[in-house]
Specification:
The complex is a heterodimer of chains A (350) and B (503).
Chain A (H helix, E strand, L loop, with lengths): L1 H5 L3 H17 L6 E4 L2 E4 H24 L7 H17 L7 H29 L3 H20 L4 E2 L3 H8 L1 E2 L2 E2 H19 L2 H10 L1 H6 L4 H27 L1 E2 L8 H11 L11 H20 L7 H16 L1 H8 L9 H9 L5
Antiparallel strand pairs in A: 1-2, 3-6, 4-5
Helix pairs in contact in A: 2-13, 3-8, 3-11, 3-12, 3-13, 4-5, 4-6, 4-11, 5-6, 5-11, 7-11, 8-9, 12-13, 13-14
Chain B lengths: L7 E10 L2 E11 L4 E5 L6 H8 L7 E6 L2 E3 L4 H6 L2 E4 L11 H6 L5 E2 L2 E2 L1 H13 L16 H14 L4 E5 L7 H16 L3 E5 L3 H7 L2 E6 L2 E7 L5 H9 L20 E10 L3 E9 L3 E5 L6 H9 L6 E6 L2 E3 L4 H6 L2 E4 L3 H5 L6 H13 L7 H14 L16 H13 L5 E5 L7 H16 L3 E5 L3 H7 L2 E6 L2 E7 L6 H10 L4
Parallel strand pairs in B: 3-10, 3-11, 6-9, 9-10, 15-20, 15-21, 18-19, 19-20
Antiparallel strand pairs in B: 1-2, 1-4, 4-5, 7-8, 11-12, 13-14, 13-16, 16-17, 21-22
The chains are: A mainly alpha (350), B alpha/beta (503).
């Protein structure tokens, strides 16, 4: 039992289960999943589907935070990527042309990669503080997205593009499959290959990493580029789901939710150890919370306040110092040090 | 003439940290109008004594009297109000504010709640003029050199009512002209009757400026001496803890190596860190670097590893000229470096013992070629056993290990690379006797196996026991290169340090 409680992911998982239980109490049949027209339907599927962009952005953010940095520009990258893809598709003679849609996707993701590499260059090459370096694209990127869409909302009518965010494949929403693929790839790169250890060591002690021969500059640029790529995919999903690109509102504040998801998942904002599983749980907690707010009928004007309250409680419950004080558990449990630093910073995104 | 009554008297000061007795029964006194040097090797208790005096730490035993009255300071602010001001090595002023603002920050001259800027600038200029410093006080502090900033800090400290001024290594980042300027200011303050406590690792400076010195060793008082009555050799002996007469020749001295050169430097240097030096390390040779703290030992090590860039001179490895721009390039050439600062420059505390050990090898291979887990486990198990790392649990976080075991983890990281030159900077500092002996034995074995070792240590016995050749440093300069033959004793090394190789 204690081993279970001590597990890094115990508290985020517990909170998620609690939220799900609350939903079950309010909405009977919440957990049921049914098959309609060869597609799976149900609230749980919806949570995954609507949470997919956030999970993607949070995965990229996890690696950036593990290097000791932060990326505020992901929301803008979401908007830019969607805008560029939609613009290209809207100019196609046949909007359903798969080749044309693939070109649009390629262009959008290529631009996202360039933007991410620029962030990484500012951080690792020039040595600007990550929060400032990525603030540039956070602000300027919204302008860029508007420039691409000419200040309008670009709408498309493409069945092939719709698949990314709104389609189904093998009975599952396609977006869920994309998330699973990116998650698997990230897990492979970081845990099967040595990327994870090198990233953790850069975040854990940058000076020592340099003296151990790690080329931290290139790695850092790659991590920011990867983060922007994840945001770019999320941007495609969001715009594809509504078949339009809105330079102003697509991905607005998603960077804060992503940072929050990373923190709830137990990765320290100081950098070092990270947990991809924790981040996915964290993103699911946030998405479930949003769903819960709608399903139990919280008045719309108080949703943000309610969300903030729940997030505060989640972060307090995760803090070993807080638990020790409040619950007065018998015997001293050694708090995991990285988690101890999380809770101080958590209020920012909330 | 009887000496004036001491303004500050500390007697029987004891201070204990968990597991370490930092100060035991130290007496110290400071007379008005003198410059008093506090001497001792690294870890002798100098900074603890200063922190106890200024209220940063509580004392566990003993008493402090200021002007004949018992005092207990709860913090540096109280000490300052009582007239004890400290200026640290790193100037802690606000570089973005003007000189005048820095001097009067928190106590600006006001009228009706408004700051009187003109009056503040005039008083600041007067104050600095009193120190022979004529600068524009409305310019930001950052526009002046470190020496001037140091003096602004002193001006501020003195103006706040200092009767006792503590200067903790104020000269370590100054050039010789700036040091002269600082000394002029110190002499002026001394003439005004202010007592100055001066800490520096530069012997020449101590002899130039100080009137009296107190020597500490391992947290105990060695004695108080008049600078004019204590020679440099005796001083070094008292700091290190060996009288010249006691020094015995060591028994099993390693035989000299006559193999081909591995690393050669030709007037390699870095301005502000180490003057150009020429040194050759042969294959399988252990070269010891001896010298006091701050004499440039670490700087040499960092240059050879590419951690710093050389500003002059050339470096050859295997006879080939190389430029080491990054540690990685040095590693490709077979050079490894164990930093003296394990925590800041060596270990990644959040990673496990296993990960810390394989880190450098993994960095060499790149992220896309992971070391198979089985190979990792074999390597780690081998070195955990060979170096006797405890606890022998590779999945333990390295932060939970003791200092000696952390040191061995760091050693293991470099040993699995099988380097040709291993640079060890203070590998035995702060670790227990057993681990120390194990590391020394290992160095001897590695050198027998053909690995060249550059061994940096403050302990001369250790350097002598292991080295084939000893390079002696003083004041950031390589002053002598001594073969470790029958004639070489710690006494000879100490004399070389003290005389600066002139003898």
């Amino acid at each position: 039992m204690t081993a279970l409680v001590r597990h890094r992911l115990f508290w985020p998982a517990a909170v998620l289960l609690l939220l799900l239980a609350a939903n079950v109490a309010f909405t009977p049949g919440f957990l049921s999943i049914e098959m309609k027209d060869g597609h799976l339907y149900g609230s749980l599927i919806d949570i995954f589907r609507f949470g997919a962009p956030l999970i993607l952005v949070a995965i990229g953010m996890t690696l950036v935070i593990a290097t000791g940095g932060i990326d505020l520009s992901v929301g803008s990258v979401v908007a830019i990527s969607g805008a560029l893809a939609c613009l290209h598709i809207s100019g196609l003679p046949d909007q359903n042309d798969v080749g044309g849609v693939l070109t649009a996707v390629g262009l959008a993701l290529g631009l996202a990669l360039v933007l991410g590499a620029w962030n990484g260059f500012l951080v690792a090459g020039i040595g600007i503080q990550p929060i400032i370096a990525t603030l540039i694209i956070m602000v300027a990127g919204r302008g860029l997205a508007q420039l691409i869409t000419d200040g309008q909302i670009v709408t498309v009518n493409s069945a092939s593009y719709k698949l990314i965010g709104g389609g189904y494949w093998l009975t599952l929403p396609f977006s869920i499959l994309i998330v699973l693929a990116v998650l698997a790839l990230t897990a492979f790169l970081t845990r099967r290959l040595a990327l994870g250890m090198l990233v953790e060591s850069i975040g854990g002690n940058a000076t020592a990493s340099r003296l151990a021969g790690i080329r931290s500059r290139g790695l850092t640029v790659a991590v920011y580029a990867f983060c922007a790529l994840c945001a770019g995919i999320a941007g495609l999903m969001i715009s594809s789901n509504v078949s339009s690109a809105d330079g102003n509102n697509a991905g607005l504040w998603i960077e804060l939710d992503a940072i929050l998801a990373v923190v709830i998942g137990g990765t320290s904002l100081m950098g070092g150890r990270f947990s991809l599983g924790g981040t996915v749980l964290g993103a699911l907690v946030i998405q479930t919370l949003t769903t819960t707010i709608y399903s139990i009928g919280i008045p719309p004007e108080t949703t943000l306040l309610f969300k903030a309250l729940v997030v505060t409680v989640v972060c307090l419950v995760q803090s070993p110092a807080f638990r020790e004080k409040v619950f007065q558990r018998r015997g001293r449990r050694r708090p995991a040090a990285p988690q101890a630093t999380d809770d101080e910073k958590v209020e920012v995104p909330a | 003439m009887a000496p004036p009554a001491p303004i500050l008297q500390m007697s029987g000061i004891c201070k204990e940290f968990p597991g370490v007795k930092a100060l035991s029964g130290v007496d110290f006194r400071l007379l008005p109008g003198e410059v008093h040097a506090l001497m001792g090797e690294n870890g002798a208790g100098k900074s603890t004594l200063i922190k106890v005096l200024t209220g940063v730490y509580d004392i566990d035993g003993g008493r402090i009297t200021l002007n004949g009255q018992d005092v207990v300071f709860a913090g540096p602010l109280q000490a300052q109000q009582a007239g004890i001001s400290t200026v640290y090595q790193e100037v802690n002023l606000c570089a973005n504010l003007s000189v005048a603002e820095n001097i009067f920050i928190g106590r600006e001259p006001r009228r009706l709640g408004r700051i009187q800027w003109k009056r503040m600038r005039r008083r600041a200029a007067e104050l600095l003029a009193g120190l022979d410093l004529h600068i524009d006080v409305s310019a930001p502090l950052s526009s002046y050199s470190l020496a001037v900033q140091q003096m602004v800090a002193i001006a501020r400290a003195v103006d706040i009512s200092a009767r006792v001024l503590i200067l903790d290594e104020p000269t370590s980042s100054l050039d010789s002209g700036e040091v002269e300027q600082l000394f002029r200011v110190m002499r002026r303050l001394k003439a005004e009757g202010i007592a100055i406590l001066f800490v520096s690792h530069f012997l020449d400076q101590i002899y130039e400026i100080s009137d009296r010195m107190t020597i500490l060793r391992n947290g105990s008082l060695v004695g108080e001496y008049l600078t004019s009555e204590l020679g440099q050799v005796e001083l070094v002996g008292k700091m290190i803890g060996r009288e010249l007469a006691d020094l015995e020749k060591l028994e099993d001295r390693p035989p000299a190596r006559t193999s081909e050169p591995l690393v050669q430097t030709e007037a390699l240097g870095r301005s502000g860190a180490i003057e150009p030096f020429t040194l050759t390390v042969h294959k399988g040779e252990v070269v010891g670097l001896a010298g006091l703290l701050g004499s440039g030992r670490t700087e040499i090590a960092r240059l050879l590893f590419g951690a710093d860039h050389a500003s002059t001179g050339a470096l050859r490895i295997d006879g080939e000229p190389v430029t080491l721009r990054t540690p990685r390039l040095a590693m490709n050439r077979g050079v490894a470096f164990c930093s003296e600062n394990r925590r800041a420059e060596g270990l990644i505390p959040d990673l496990t013992v296993r990960e810390n050990i394989v880190l450098a090898l993994q960095a060499m291979r790149g992220w896309h070629r992971p070391i198979p887990r089985r190979t990792q486990d074999e390597l780690v198990d081998k070195y955990v056993a060979a170096l006797n790392i405890r606890p022998a649990d590779p999945e333990q976080l390295v932060r939970n290990l003791s200092g000696g075991n952390q040191q061995k983890v760091l050693l293991a990281r470099w040993l699995i690379l099988e380097p040709r030159l291993l640079i060890l900077d203070e590998p035995t500092r702060g670790i227990d006797v057993g681990a120390k002996a194990e590391i020394q034995r290992l160095v001897a074995e590695l050198s027998d196996g053909g690995m060249a070792v550059l061994f940096v240590s403050a302990e001369l016995e250790e350097v002598l026991r292991l080295s084939h050749k000893v390079a002696v440093l003083r004041d950031r300069k390589l002053v002598a290169e001594l073969p470790n033959d029958d004639g070489l004793t710690t006494g000879v090394i100490m004399e070389t340090i003290a005389s600066g190789g002139r003898a």
